[in-house]
Amino acid sequence: MDALKAQLEGVRASLDRIPILQKAEDATKVPKEFLVLGGGIIFFVLIFFGIGAGTLCGIVGFVYPAFKSFESIESKIRGDDTQWLIYWVVYAFFSIIEVFVDFLLYWIPFYYAFKLAFLLWAMLPQTKGAKFLYDSFLKDFLKKNESKIDKALHDAKRSASVIASEVAAATADVTASGLSAAAEYANKTKASGTDKVDKKTD
């Protein structure tokens, strides 16, 4: 019992450094360590049951890395730039794979819990999982297939340009046809109105 009390006191001492938790404790009259414990339990229940887990993983995968990338850009120290560039390469590679096997991932129990753990492992400076994955296989894979990837991107860009040109041409044709029909209708209406005026005059 004394050991548990000592651990709680240690946790509380760590949480005392976070002002927002003190405000929450003052407002709810609940000790901050229990607030953190309850929040953690709710968080993991939501993740394991997949309630809003996809959105949460997207936020975790983007917000913290994006902010740290911004800090790296503005910092004069250049070593941390590489870490976050590597993370974004790994994240993009992971996201592409996820798109193609999405229908299978739906059937994996607690997939989003594993994804969240993977993202944290990949991004945190303490673990540097993204750098491990990049150095282990991704760098060699990308270098080996760099020419194929460049060709695929070039073909996709050319196809997109052709499609865009065809759509623009078709839109121009439709617009021209519409304007021509509108002008013809206006002329007929005007001619019909003139005939009626002539008949009334007669």
Summarize the structure.
This protein has helices at 2-15, 19-28, 32-49, 53-74, 79-100, 102-105, 111-123, 129-144, 146-201. With 202 residues, the protein is mostly helical. It starts with a helix and ends with a helix.
Radius of gyration: 31 Å
Count of alpha/pi helices: 9
Number of strands: 0
Give start-end ranges of low-pLDDT stretches. Answer: none
Structural class: mainly alpha
Listing every helix as H and every strand as E from the N terminus to the C terminus, the arrangement reads HHHHHHHHH
- What average pLDDT do the residues reach? 76
Biggest sheet descriptor = none
Beta-strand percentage range:
under 5%
Report helical residue fraction.
over 70%
Report how far apart the termini are: 114 Å
Q: What is the global morphology?
A: elongated
Describe the structure.
This protein is mainly alpha-helical and 202 residues long. It has a domain at 131-193. It contains 9 helices and no strands. The model has no long low-confidence stretch (mean pLDDT 76).
Topology, element by element:
Layout (H helix, E strand, L loop, with lengths): L1 H14 L3 H10 L3 H18 L3 H22 L4 H22 L1 H4 L5 H13 L5 H16 L1 H56 L1
What are the main properties of this structure?
202 residues, mainly alpha, elongated
